[in-house]
Amino acid sequence: EPFVADEYIERLAWRTPGGGSRGGEAFDPKRLLEEFVNHIQELQVMDERIQRKVEKLEQQCQKEAKEFAKKVQELQKSNQVAFQHFQELDEHISYVATKVCHLGDQLEGVNTPRQRAVEAQKLMKYFNEFLDGELKSDVFTNSEKIKEAADIIQKLHLIAQELPFDSLMDFCCYPFSSPGKYHDLECQLIQEFTSAQRRGEISRMREVAAVLLHFKVKPEGFNPQYMNKQVGEVFSNPETVLAKLIQNIFEVKLQSYVKDQLEEHRKSDAEQYLKNLYDLYTRTTNLSSKLMEFNLGTDKQTFLSKLIKSIFISYLENYIEVEIGYLKSRSAMILQRYYDSKNHQKRSIGTGGIQDLKERIRQRTNLPLGPSIDTHGETFLSQEVVVNLLQETKQAFERCHRLSDPSDLPKNAFRIFSMLVDFLCTEHIDYALETGLAGIPSSDSKNANLYFLDVVHQANTIFHLFDKQFNDHLMPLISSSPKLSECLQKKKDIIEQMEVKLDMGIDTLNCMIGQMKHILAAEQKKTDFKPEDENNVLIQYTNACVKVCGYVRKQVEKIRNSMDGKNVDTVLMELGVRFHRLIYEHLQQYSYSCMGGMLAICDVAEYRKCAKDFKIALVLQLFDTLHALCNLLVVAPDNLKQVCSGEQLANLDKNILHSFVQLRVDYRSARLARHFS
């Protein structure tokens, strides 16, 4: 334990009699002092004794250190001597080894020619047996020594290949000639390998495989394994063997099968040829993906890709030309079959560009696009045709994705897209729009059928399908290439061209207004608003109003079903404004008695209900104002100024207000003129 002086003194005082208050003893300082002095003397004696002992130990330690240092020096000298002896021994061993190697080389130089001479003698003996036509040696007659026989036959085969041609022909004439025996033995080895494989004898397979490794020719039917595990167990270089097997399957079996399947339809049936090419290429690439699981060496991806390319290169080089040619003929056939089913002969359509169409819209000439034709209610748009064209193009995109080189994929996809635009958008949709425009009747036609809206409805539905295919199947193929902007621009041009032609269909609204005029002219009577008996009016609104409203509601519903988005509001606003103008001008043609004015207000109220179906604020506002104007037909003369200054009429031109007041039968009365002046 660590020494603590205070505790030591406390213990000493406690043990000394009279040194404390223990047991009631009186404290005796003299005795305690005496005890301390004695104890100090004892400690001094002990210190001197310990110091002498320390000095003695230090002297002994110094002596032993000197002896140890001397001993270490002696050991170092001995080690140096031993190291010198070891170097001398190593040099001597190296010298002896050199002599032994030189002697071995001399012995080998003597023994190798001797062994070769012995081997040559044996081969000459076997060669003579073949020349004599009688195989006597045990190595040829004993089936268990097939390995030794194979080695001999292999060497004789190499010798036979070095013989002159004439000698070789003479040599081959013997029934047991070396080349013949070579192939016979090779077939026996292959058969033995196959039998061992069926029996599951891995060691025998390994033994026969080692012998077959020296034979150069591998027959077509040679299939050294069925399982990857067996290859690793049988062959010393399983990666090379397995790669060679796969190469043999691809270049012989698979290539022959692909050629048979494709060449049969290559020139006679493009559709079947493309289907077979896509199917075979897909199955081959799937096979390649599964083969990636096996150990075929370091760069197996490149190895398998080269094998696939070697099989399909001649078919993939001109794939897109075959695809485009087939797609063109197939699309043309689909369209022609449809028009034939309708007994319709396609007419030539205008070739003007978008700017020409815009100019015709701007001028609002309302001239037909060509000779007016009667479509008999036929839109010349077919969902079946569209589905067939889109399906053909979808399959073409799928084949293009699989069969095109990555660098050519965007370009090829754009060519397919262009074919779809030509046949679906131009030859089908655009033709139907042109035909529909040409079939729009003039505004003064009676009982005109407005089939153009049906064309618009179907064209709108079809274009949604076209747009879906654009996004789903074309975009993934071109999204990261410069062809993306080109495709988007082409699509934009098509949309703009169709919208321009749809705008030209605004002439349909003229026909609608024309039909309303015919209804009003045929059904509206002058006596409706100036009845002979003011007290015997039993109707709420006129028959002309009922028929016009019924006709308008049908057209509004038809427009909503035919269009979508902002186009609906745009067309309905245009129709609503024209509808209001028609009613406004129609009402200006009659004179109104008090009861006739009330009936006109009822008619306008009904027209206003019909205007609510438009769901266009401007149209409803126009009819609200017209309804307010009709109030001028029945209001008392004293209240005219007050009504004209109302909220709905205050901002109108005074001439408009005056024109409605003039329609009253009592307008010429002095009282009315005075109040309105």
From TrEMBL:
Q: Which GO terms describe its cellular component?
A: exocyst
Parts forming coiled coils? 40-78
Superkingdom of this entry's organism?
A: Eukaryota
Report domain Exocyst complex component Sec10-like alpha-helical bundle positions: 148-216, 229-676
Q: Pfam families recorded for this chain?
A: Sec10_HB (PF07393), Sec10_N (PF20667)
Q: Name one GO biological process term.
A: Golgi to plasma membrane transport
Record InterPro entries = Sec10-like, Sec10_HB, Sec10_N
Give every Exocyst complex component Sec10 N-terminal domain span. Answer: 29-137
UniProt keywords, alphabetically? Coiled coil, Exocytosis, Transport
This protein's record includes keyword Transport: yes
Family of the protein in this entry: Belongs to the SEC10 family.
| Protein name from the UniProt record | Exocyst complex component 5
Q: Where does this protein come from, organism-wise?
A: Grus americana
